[in-house]
Task: structure prediction
Amino acid sequence: MQLFTNGNLILEDTVIQNGYLVEDKGVIQAYGSQPVPEIWVKQATSIIDCHSLYLSPGFVDIHTHGSGGFDYMDGTVEAFEQAAKAHLRFGATTILPTTLASTDKHLYQTLDVFKQASKLTDGMPHLPGLHLEGPYFSPFEKGAMEERHLRLPDERHYMPVVEYAEGLIRRWSLAPELAGSLEMADRLVPMGIHLSAAHTAATYEQMSEAFDHGINHLTHFYSAMSTITRKNGFRILGVVESGYLIDGLTLEVIADGMHLPPALLKLVYQAKKSEQICACTDSMRAAGLPEGPSILGPIEGGTAVIVEDGIAKMPDKTCFAGSVATCDRMVRTLMRDADLPLWEAVRASSYLPALFMGLGETTGSIRVGKQADLLVLGRDITVKRVFVSGKEVL
Result:
C-alpha cells in the first residue's frame, strides 16, 4: 500500500491543497485533506512525498499517431512499444493508438502488431483499444490524408476488419455524409465501437441525422470539416456549426496552440459546454523530438512532412499534417489560451476523453475505486513522476 502525502490533488472540479492519497494493488483507496488518518499511516508500506507539487490523474489521449520518432503504423512491435512509452514522459497513462487512411496491407499489419503490443505491460501506458482514422473520408476534406487511400464505407470492407481485430477497435472516425456511413454506424455502435465524424463535408442536416445513428463525437474540431457555405444565396451550415448546435455531440480539440489560435479556442469554450469538450494531441512521430523533416504514417510508404514552428506541415505548407503536441503542453495551452483553471484543463485532458470513449469508470480522475494512474506535476505543469496502476514508470 502506497501513501502519497503533501500533494495538491487535482480533482474533476477542484484542487485539494495539501492532500493525501492512498493506493493499493493499483487502485485508489482513499484521498482527502491532510492530516492523514492514522489507519492509512499504519497500513502504508511506502510513503511518497509530493513536496507540495500537484498530484494529478494520468492524461488520456484518445487520438495519437505516434511519438518519440515512432508511428503506430510502422509495422513492428518495437516501434509500437517505443511510441507508447514515449507518451509516458509527458503524462499520458492511457492512449488510443491511431491509424490513418492507408492500404489494407498496412491496416491489417497494424492490427497484428497491436494484438502483440497490447499484451505488453512493463513500463507501458494502458492500451484499451485502437482508433481507426479512415479510410472512409471525403476527398473534399482529406487534409493530410492521401486521396488514393480513401473509399466509401462498405460492410464487405469494414466487417472483415472488425472481425479480424477481435474486439480491439474502440473508436472509428469517418465522414458521415458518405453513402453507407449510417449503415456502418447501425452495425458498429451496438458492438461498442465509438464513431466520430472526421474529414467530412457534411451539412448540419446530415450531421444531425448521423448523431441520431450514434455518431456522437467530432474528431479534431475545426480541422478537415465543413463550415458555412452559400448555395444560390442561401447559407448552408456545416459540421463546425453542428458541433455548437447539437447538444450531446462531443468535441475534441487539438490543444497545441497552433491548430486553434487562442481566440478560436476561447470561442469554442464560450460557445460549447466545457463538459462536452476534450483535448487530444493528434500527435505524429515527431512529438517530443527536435524540428525538421519527418514522416506522417508508416515509416515505409508514409507521407513526407516538415516540422517547424511547433507544428507538422505538408511539404508545400498548404495545411497542417498532425501535431507534435504532448499532453502536458495541452494542459498549459488550455490554461493560457482558453483561460481555464487548472482542474478544468486537466479534466479536459484526462476524465472527459476517458468518459467519451467509455473509460470513465476506470480511469481519468482521482476517485476511490479507479486505477491509480497518477502524475506528480511541477508548478509549471511539467511531468515529474508517472504511475500506471500504482506502479511508478517514470
The CA atoms of residues 28 and 368 lie 5 Å apart. The longest strand covers residues 15-24. The radius of gyration is 21 Å.
